[in-house]
From TrEMBL:
This is Pilus assembly protein. It comes from the Bacteria. Keywords: Membrane, Transmembrane, Transmembrane helix. The keyword Transmembrane applies.
Length: 194
C-alpha cells in the first residue's frame, strides 16, 4: 500500500511553518536596537568630524596669518624703499615693529598675540654698488632654527639692496601645544636714491 496522503488542511499548516519568516522582535525592542546602532555610529563619527572641523579652522588661521605677514612685509618694504625708514636700527626698528604689528591686526583682533614680543624681523642691507644690484650677492637671508629666526637689523640708506624677512612661530593647537610652524615672509628690494 502506498503512504497515506495528508489531508489538505494539514498540508497547508506544514507549508506555512516551513516557509515562515523568522519571528520578528516586538516594536519596542526594534526601536531600542535601532537607537543603540545610531548611538554607536554617532560615537564613532563625531570625534572624526570634530577633528576635521577643527583642522579646517586651524589651517585657515595659518593661511590668514601668512597672508597678513605678506601684506605687512610689502607695506614695510614700500616705506623703507621710499626713505621713510632710514638710518640705524635704533631709528627705524621700533617703528617697523609697530607698523608690522598694526598690519597684523584686523578689526581690532591681532592674529599674532603679543605681537611686539613674538614677531621676528630681519633686515639685511648692502650698498647697491656698480652695477646696480651687486649688493644682493653679499646678502644672506635670515637663519631659521626651529621657531627662532635671526633678528638683526642693518642700517638703511639710499640705493641699498635690502632683504626684509618677517617671521612668526604659529602655534598648532591641533597636534600639541608645543608644536609650532615657522611662517616667514621674505621681500628683496632696492631703496631709492632719495
Amino acid at each position: 500500500m502506498g503512504a497515506a496522503r495528508p489531508d489538505p488542511a494539514h498540508r497547508h499548516a506544514l507549508n506555512t511553518t516551513m516557509h515562515a519568516s523568522p519571528p520578528r522582535l516586538p516594536l519596542h525592542r526594534r526601536a531600542a536596537t535601532q537607537r543603540g546602532a545610531v548611538a554607536l555610529e554617532y560615537a564613532l563619527v563625531l570625534p572624526l568630524f570634530l577633528v576635521a572641523v577643527f583642522a579646517v579652522f586651524q589651517f585657515s588661521a595659518a593661511f590668514i596669518t601668512q597672508a597678513l605677514l605678506d601684506n605687512a612685509a610689502h607695506h614695510a618694504a614700500r616705506l623703507a624703499r621710499i626713505g621713510t625708514m632710514t638710518g640705524g636700527p635704533g631709528n627705524y626698528g621700533p617703528r617697523l615693529t609697530a607698523l608690522v604689528c598694526d598690519d597684523l591686526t584686523v578689526g581690532g583682533h591681532s592674529f599674532v598675540p603679543s605681537c611686539a614680543r613674538t614677531i621676528q624681523i630681519y633686515v639685511a642691507a648692502a650698498n647697491s654698488g656698480a652695477p646696480a644690484g651687486s649688493g644682493f650677492l653679499t646678502l644672506a637671508p635670515a637663519t631659521v632654527n626651529g621657531t627662532t629666526m635671526t633678528q638683526t637689523k642693518a642700517a638703511l640708506g639710499p640705493r641699498d639692496d635690502v632683504v626684509l624677512q618677517i617671521g612668526y612661530a604659529f602655534p598648532w593647537a591641533l597636534f600639541t601645544t608645543s608644536a609650532n610652524a615657522m611662517l616667514v615672509s621674505t621681500l628683496v628690494f632696492q631703496t631709492e636714491p632719495y
